[in-house]
Amino acid sequence: MLSSYIIEVKEATPQLIQEVNNLLAQLSTRKPQIDVTILQQIIDSPDTHLYIYYKEGKAAGMLTLASYLAPTGRKWWIEDVVVDERYRGCGIGQALVENAALEVHNHGGGSLLLTSRPSREAANRLYQRAGFEKRETNVYKKTVE
Q1: Of the candidates 114, 123, 1, 100, which has an alpha carbon nearest to the alpha carbon of residue 54?
Q2: Which pLDDT tens digit goes with each residue over 103-138?
């Protein structure tokens, strides 16, 4: 077996839920948790793809790729990119982003978009090295209950 590889999640297992939750805890200070229902919805959606990077049998990073069709063309969004702190600086984030770009290409292309807080300096450098251009725009969020 390869020592490092990326898979698209196809089955919601208890081990996978634990791995994703371990990574999510490193992504956000509010410590979001995922359960089997949400993970299964992600897996079942034809427009959402969850990729896990495994290094030596351990989940070392993840990335979600989502798409939708708009009048201006297909949009692809990279979401929830996180690399386990034990493996940062090893190229895992770059490998996940390159894998996402390849998947977009294999599905006919389109705009590949993402957002990243300015405080995430290493992530922003990664995205710029990967060919993403910073856009002058505002991002707004409204939580609807």
Answers
A1: 1
A2: 999 999 999 999 998 988 989 999 999 999 999 888
In terms of DSSP bridges, do strands 58-70 and 4-8 run parallel, antiparallel, or are they unpaired? unpaired
Instruction: Classify 75 as helix, strand or coil.
Output: strand
* pTM score of the predicted model: 0.92
DSSP 103: H
Distance CA 120, CA 107 (A): 29
CA distance 78 to 126: 13
Beta strands 73-83 and 4-8 are: unpaired
Q: Is the dihedral of CA 15, 7, 9, 126 positive or negative?
A: positive
Answer for the pair 4, 53: CB distance below 8 angstroms, yes or no. yes
Residue 83, judged by CB atoms within 10 A of its CB (0-12, 13-18, 19+), counts as buried
How many angstroms separate the CA atoms of 111 and 109, rounded? 7
Q: Evaluate whether 78 touches 114 at the Cβ level (below 8 Å).
A: yes
**Domains, the chain, with CATH or none:** 4-129 (3.40.630.30)
Look up residue 57 and give its amino acid.
G
